[in-house]
Design brief:
oxidoreductase, 47% helix, Rossmann fold, 337 residues, globular, 12% strand, alpha/beta
Length: 337
């Protein structure tokens, strides 16, 4: 398992500055963007930004009660800021702890919309105080941060392909990641114990491994989807997670403070509103139109961790992810019969 991952994207250009990007007049022309986890924190900030630039944003929420509150918040923002070309915003229900919910969302979206320009896999969870399994039988951190986002992405690939045709430009998939993915060092743990209950559950470690796993999957997806003109990248929004977002909904106070101490140590605290422009840079900057298989920090391309440069590990992780999803769906189908 010593192969180095082939860099599949074109050499990325020198990035523009955040100030230059913020000064640009960008029109997203009502192209459709799905942002998961749009009710708070980074997802809400990105939703506001895309909508203010004439994007058509479909934001996912865990309950429709949150959907109503988020809908009002976004349109209050548009009313207050008065953008030149306001876009459209709607919410749809999606619970990432359930593969059934992912499938239902995909079917409902397909019934309502004919295409998709970009999918932002933003929703995540971390720092669970104790080991917890979902109804599908997986450790919750890994299902929410990896299995369900991948299943959602796979379900929406046909619509992303239609987006390439209808908008006459590359479609985008963006995984929101974290610098904490550099923490894991043990590829055997990653492959052998990913779905099983660890002997000693550690919230920070579990979160870090889930983020590394999502980058491995992202890199292999980029390899497989490049020929379809679908660009797949990951972004570290640099500590834009405040302590009052849904990301921390199950976290104990000590675990929250430990993560924030880690972020401060690496100077990784950024406001969500500012960090939303980092995603916009990947989604709408023409300089990155054909960039795929890259890991961004702020406005720049950076190398991911050492384990992410292992081609065999990327392939194994995606294959294992697909196998776990297939097995869970098959078992549920058999139980229903």
């Amino acid at each position: 398992m010593g192969n180095t991952l082939r860099r599949i994207g074109k050499n990325p250009p020198q990035s523009i500055s955040l100030r230059q990007l913020m000064s640009k007049e960008i029109d997203l022309e009502r192209r459709k963007y799905i942002v998961t986890g749009c009710s708070s924190g980074y997802g809400l900030a990105l939703t506001k930004l895309l909508t203010s630039l004439n994007g058509h944003v479909i934001g996912t929420v865990r309950t429709m009660e949150k959907g109503k509150l988020t809908f009002d918040t976004v349109y209050e923002h548009l009313e207050k800021t008065q953008p030149k070309k306001p876009g459209l915003f709607e919410t749809m229900e999606l619970e990432l702890t359930s593969l059934d919910s992912v499938r239902n969302f995909s079917q409902e979206y397909t019934a309502k919309h004919s295409n998709l320009h970009a999918l932002v896999n933003n929703a995540g969870i971390g720092l669970l105080p104790e080991f917890k399994k979902t109804q599908d039988g997986f450790e919750e951190t890994y299902q929410v941060n990896l299995l369900s986002p991948y299943y959602l992405t796979a379900q929406l690939v046909p619509l992303l392909k239609r987006g390439v045709r209808d908008y006459n430009q590359a479609s985008k998939i963006l995984f929101i990641s974290s610098k904490i993915h550099h923490y894991p060092r043990d590829e055997n743990f990653l492959l052998e114990k990913l779905w099983n209950e660890p002997k000693e559950y550690q919230p920070n470690k579990q979160y870090a491994y889930s983020k590394l796993a999502s980058i491995l999957v992202m890199l292999e997806m980029a390899e497989r989807l490049e020929s379809s003109n679908i660009m797949v990248n990951a972004l570290d929004p640099v500590g834009s997670l405040s302590l009052n977002t849904n990301f921390h909904r199950y976290s104990e106070e000590d675990a929250k403070q430990n993560l924030m101490s880690f972020l401060r140590r690496f100077k990784q605290i950024t406001s969500p509103d500012k960090a939303a422009y980092y995603a916009l840079n990947i989604l709408a900057n023409p300089d990155y139109e054909d960039t795929t298989g890259e890991y961004f920090t702020r406005m720049n391309v950076r190398l991911p961790s050492r384990l992410a440069n292992n081609e065999d590990l990327c392939i194994d992780m995606l294959d294992q992810t697909e196998y776990c999803i297939y097995t869970a769906l098959k078992n549920k189908q058999q139980q229903n019969h």
